Amino acid sequence: MRNVGIISVGSYVPKKVLTNLDLTKMVETSDEWITSRTGIKERRIAAMGERTSHLAINAAKDALHRADFDPAHLELIIVATISPDSNFPSVACLVQKELGAINATAFDVSAACAGYLFAMTTAKQYILSGMYKNALVIAAEKITSLIDWSDRNTCVLFGDGSGACLLGEVDHDRGIVADYLHSQGEHNEMMKVVSEDREPLNQTSKTMPMPYVVMQGQELFKVAVNSMADAVEIVVKKAKLQLSDIDCVVPHQANDRIISAVAKKLEIPKEKIFINIDRYGNMSAASIAVAFFEAIDQKRIKKGNTVVLVAFGAGLVTAATVVRW
Ligand code: ACO
Fold first, then answer.
1. How far apart are CA 302 and CA 324, in angstroms?
2. Distance 155 CA to ligand 1 centre (A)
3. 13, 90, 146, 285: least surrounded by Cβ within 10 Å?
4. In this structure, are 127 and 224 located in the same domain?
C-alpha cells in the first residue's frame, strides 16, 4: 500500500500591507473594533496587475525550490482558488506553463476556504491510485478583487496570498494519515459572491457589474465553530488517535474568536493552535496553506509531530486532514 505525504511546502504573500488604520480612512471602522472582533491587525493586498496566477507561481516555485525538485518531473498540479485570473484557462494551466511543467496534468478546484485541503485530498487519491507519482498542490487567492471596499462588514476581513506543497510517496512513519471532506449545499446562501444582472447578449452596457462577497457573519460564525470542531473529532478518530495525541492544529484563519471557540469546544490548549490571522486576515484557501508553511518554518511543527489542518468555507464546505510530519 502506498503512503502519501508532504515533501515540501512554500508560500508567497504580496508586499503591500493594508493596516487597520488604513481601513479607517476608507470606511467607518476602528482598529479596536477590527482587532477585538476578528484578531486581524493587517492584511496583504496584491499589487495592480498582480493576479492570482502570479501569487500561485511564486508559492509553487518556493515549494519546488525547497525540495530541489525539477518541474519537468511534476505529474499533477492542482490549484485551489475562488479568485482565478479569469473563468478560463485554469490558474493551474498558467502555473504549468510558467514552471515548464510540461509533463503535468493541471486543473483547479473550487472549495472556498477549504480548497487547499480539498485539493490535497484529491491529489493524495491520485497518487494512492497509482495514476500519478507526485502532485503540486497550491492555494492562491486574490480575494480582495471580490470585495466591496465600501462595505465595512466584509472589507476588513480579507487579504491576498498563496501557499503550496509538493506531495509524493513517503516512508510509512510519516505522511497524510487521514482526511475528511464534507459539504452542506443547503447553507449556500450564507456566504456568496453576488453581481448585478448581466446585459443580454448583443446589448451594450457602459458599466460592468462588479462581483463582490456578501455574508451572514453571525450565522457563519456559529456553523464555523461547530463544523470545524466536529471535523477535527471525526478526522482524529479516522486516524485512530485521541485529541491529546495532536501536537499542533492549523485552522482556517477567518476569525480569532472562531479559532478560540473551536479550541475551547475541543478542550485543546490554545498554545497548540497556530494563528497568524493578525498579519494576513482571511486569505480564503490560502490561509491554511500559508499558516501551515509558517508553522513549519517557525518550528512550531517539528519532525514526528502529529498535525491537524482544519478548514471551513463558503458552500458550505468543511475539511480536515491529519498529517504526521
Ligand atoms: N467596523 C465597525 N463596526 C462594524 C464593522 C466594522 N468593520 N462591521 C460591522 N460593524 C458593526 C455592525 O454594523 C453592527 O452595528 P449595529 O449593532 O449598529 O448594527 C455591529 O458592528 C456588530 O456587528 P456584528 O455583525 O454583530 O458583529 P460580530 O461580532 O458578529 O462580528 C464578524 C462580525 C467579524 C463578521 C463575525 O460575525 C465573523 O467573523 N463571522 C464569521 C465570518 C466568517 O467566518 N467568514 C468567512 C467564513 S467562509 C470563508 O472564509 C470563505
1. 10
2. 10
3. 146
4. no
Distance 119 CA to ligand 1 centre (A): 29
Asked if 190 and 237 sit in the same domain, the reply is yes
Residue-wise pLDDT tens digits, 113-157 = 999 999 999 999 999 999 999 999 999 999 999 999 999 999 999
- Looking at the fold, whether 193 and 139 belong to one and the same domain comes out as no
Same domain, 22 and 168: yes
User: Distance, CA 311 to ligand 1 centroid (Å)?
Assistant: 19
pLDDT digits (tens, 9 = 90+) for 233-285: 999 999 999 999 999 999 999 999 999 999 999 999 999 999 999 999 999 99
Q: Which atom of ligand 1 is nearest to the CA of 254?
A: 44
Catalytic sites, residue numbers: 113, 252, 282
The protein residue whose alpha carbon is closest to atom 12 in ligand 1 is: 153
